[in-house]
Specification:
By secondary structure, the protein is mainly alpha-helical. The protein is built from ten helices and no strands. Helix 1 packs across helix 3.
């Protein structure tokens, strides 16, 4: 079943509509969706390695624009939508501490959390809630999200067919590591937030 799912994602990654789907997932992940865009970015880079940088650019741009939606949710709709999303992901009791941390370490919070598997939507919504500088939020989001996605794309392009072979030979292990990374990111955010 896992192999069929993997092949379906690879086939999907080769379709002309794939960049639009990648942009949609990247946008949504930065504001409300729980699945990181890496689940599409990696297969797309494997399917078309020559377009890896293009795909990383799509992820970065869509993620930053989606981050602006998350920021708006935090700044304008926190009591309704923002609080619901924060509580949905299990961070409701940590927002006040996060807001106080922004006063001292705002730049570092965005830079570090944007690179980690910690859900970026928590950063975007809380940035808006904390009324963090919108200018710096955008600048730091471009840096951190770009660095993350271009590192993934660059690594896959550098490894080329070896990366695809490694993933296909160890699909169960790679899937387990991805799941552990996603769940670990949520747990780290809950306990270290």
């Amino acid at each position: 079943m896992l192999r069929r799912l993997y092949q379906w994602v690879i086939d999907l990654a080769e379709r002309p509509s794939a960049p639009w789907a990648l942009a949609g997932v990247s946008f949504a992940e930065s504001s409300f969706f729980p699945v990181p865009p890496d689940v599409m970015l990696v297969p797309m880079c494997l399917a078309r390695p020559k377009l890896a940088w293009f795909y990383a650019g799509i992820c970065t741009a869509a993620s930053v624009v989606g981050g602006l939606l998350g920021y708006a949710i935090g700044a304008l709709l926190y009591e309704s939508v923002g609080l619901f999303l924060i509580q949905l992901y299990g961070y409701g009791d940590k927002v006040e501490a996060f807001t106080q941390a922004y006063q001292h370490y705002g730049h570092w919070i965005i830079l570090i959390k944007g690179l980690t598997p910690i859900p970026y939507k928590v950063v975007t919504i809380t940035s808006g809630f904390a009324h963090y500088s919108l200018f710096w939020f955008v600048v730091l989001s471009v840096i951190t999200r770009g660095l993350r996605f271009f590192m993934v794309a660059g690594l896959l392009q550098w490894m080329g067919p070896r990366a695809r072979h490694f993933i296909e030979e160890r699909l169960g292990l790679v899937t387990a590591l991805l799941a552990v990374t996603i769940v670990g990111g949520f747990l780290i955010a809950i306990y270290l937030f």
